[in-house]
């Protein structure tokens, strides 16, 4: 394997960036169909979506962990191990899926009992319950997607993702509004649409995995896998802890700024939506690094590690520089678009968006470094560093600047930028200094 070219990086990264964009759009589609049912329905769905987003962040290890292990095993031409990785992942999905299905009603009832609003409870209980029933289907797709990505095929999972999005629109129309004579199910119809769309997408990606020679060789269900489970769990847990606790830090940030009032929360919501879209390219480059690095190590090409990671960092930084520059220039327009009636919110959102654009430059490098260290198997360091930067840097500084020093929501986002800088510097030191010295 030679030093990876920018064309090869783009071929791996951009299908994943598009797929992540489709996933975000898919979530907005559900809200668009549910919107006419009123504020309580939107609030109920928002609670369910926040819970599910947190849950799937903690379970991201099924997808990224599979990707790393498959990349390493395939590069070493170890087909039995790669097959065992897939079987181990699917076995664990079945176990977790059974638990989710069994506990779905209890979890849903408890969540909306805490919410304490009867209308939200009416709309939300069945919606969340069906979403939890869908979780094993989604996790099953995570493992199969990891198989394709680990084999450097990032385009095929995109087909399934696009189909899911299109079917979700169709099923939402059928079940939420009762289109074509189907029973009108209201808010819970959106969850049923999501479940059926994801089930169809899963069947498609399984069919492609069984049909294509690239992946078919790793689909031997009789391959023993129990010895692979400890390594799989260790990697998946570390990845899940990092992504899950990162999202929790952002949720706690909302608690910090809540005393600032509704305007600050509105500014944060606008900025968060912008951040989610601006963050997508960096996610694609993270996964690219997590695919390439274990393959280099498996082929005993450690001498290519730093040049390869540096090249991916440069491309990630370049793409984010372009997108962040555009957002920075048009920040006032974006703020006004999301808050056309409240000029103060629009102005503050423009300022926080500019801060996020600056922080994204550091995140573009951090994400690649995180993918590279994950590929090196250094996931425990990422977890510990994430805890320190998120809970001992970001949240305390956000509270200090936003509340104690009185800088409001702008001060909170200064803490966010310093969080991005801390993550980038810490992982750069870990990879380029400590790893080089080893």
From TrEMBL:
Keywords recorded for this protein, A-Z: Antiport, Cell membrane, Ion transport, Membrane, Transmembrane, Transmembrane helix, Transport
Main location: membrane
GO biological process assignments: monoatomic ion transport
Membrane topology of the entry: Multi-pass membrane protein
Gene Ontology MF annotations: antiporter activity; xenobiotic transmembrane transporter activity
Transmembrane segments: 12-35, 41-62, 83-107, 130-151, 158-178, 190-210, 231-257, 277-297, 317-338, 350-369, 381-403, 409-433
Compartment(s) of residence: Cell membrane
GO CC entries: plasma membrane
A matching Pfam family: MatE
UniProt keyword ATP-binding present: no
Top-level taxon of origin: Bacteria
Family of this protein: Belongs to the multi antimicrobial extrusion (MATE) (TC 2.A.66.1) family.
Stated role: Multidrug efflux pump.
Protein name: Probable multidrug resistance protein NorM
